[in-house]
Amino acid sequence: MSSGGVIAGIGRFGIFAGHVVWRSLTPPWELHEFSRHLWQVTTRCVLPVCATVAPLGMVMALQGLKIFELFGAQQLLSSLVSVAVFRELSPVLASVLVAAQGGSSFAAELGAMRIKEELDATEVMAVDSLRIHVVPRFLAAVVATPLLNLAGSLAGIAGGWLSAVVFEGESSGQFLSNLWRLTQPIDLVGGTIKTLVFGALVGLISCYQGFHATGGAAGVGKAVNDTVVYAATTFIVANYFLTSALFGAIGG
């Protein structure tokens, strides 16, 4: 694709995003559809998120303990785990899984509706297809991602405790008492802000890909694949700028 085509595509996405965000902020809202999609995304992703973040918390604790033992600073282990999980591990992994599970589902559903001309029929009946079909999915992704991040954070801390206390024999009291030693409120708030942004990106990209799918079943498959690739790439890049903005000044 030429540079002109890329710029045009970004422009079309920007216009689509603007329409969706504006409809998200103005009534009427499809609360039933929103709650249905929120429930689906949350229930589909909660176990994969916990099953992914918990082992990484265990690995973080195991590797961190070996390093801290060299300096006799084992009491800092839980602080390392909590900061890493709250700032980076849980927000990023929760968002990846929302893109893989929820985002791909949104793209497939909207793509199938586009191919079957259901979206066209909705528009012919003078019904706002963006408000009816897209906004509930977008808002569901925005709300579900922080909720899943919370579940992932708890799983990551539990995994770190399991690795350090149960498997390595460290003191449970020491682990828990130092859990918040280096963790600051900005770590929790920052992780939530990240997941709100990541969820918005997943919702917009997945709905855009599905809403504009063409080419039959193959086009729907391409929309699903592009959703996961573009969403993950976009918010991982955005993660750097958000981390710099939220945490860059700490200790600097």
Distance between the termini: 42 Å
Mean pLDDT across the residues is 88
Q: Strand content of the residues, in percent?
A: under 5%
Number of domains: 1
Order of helices and strands: HHHHHHHH
Biggest beta-sheet profile: none
- Unreliable stretches (pLDDT < 50, length at least 5) are none
Quickly give the structural class.
Answer: mainly alpha
Instruction: Report the total helices.
Output: 8
Tell how many strands the DSSP assignment holds. 0
Shape: elongated
Radius of gyration: 21 Å
Helix % is over 70%
Structural write-up:
It contains eight helices and no strands. The protein has helices at residues 3-25, 31-71, 77-115, 118-124, 129-167, 172-177, 185-211, 216-247. Helix 2 (31-71) packs parallel to helix 5 (129-167), helix 3 (77-115) packs parallel to helix 7 (185-211) and helix 7 runs antiparallel to helix 8 (216-247). It starts with a helix and ends in a 5-residue tail after the last helix.
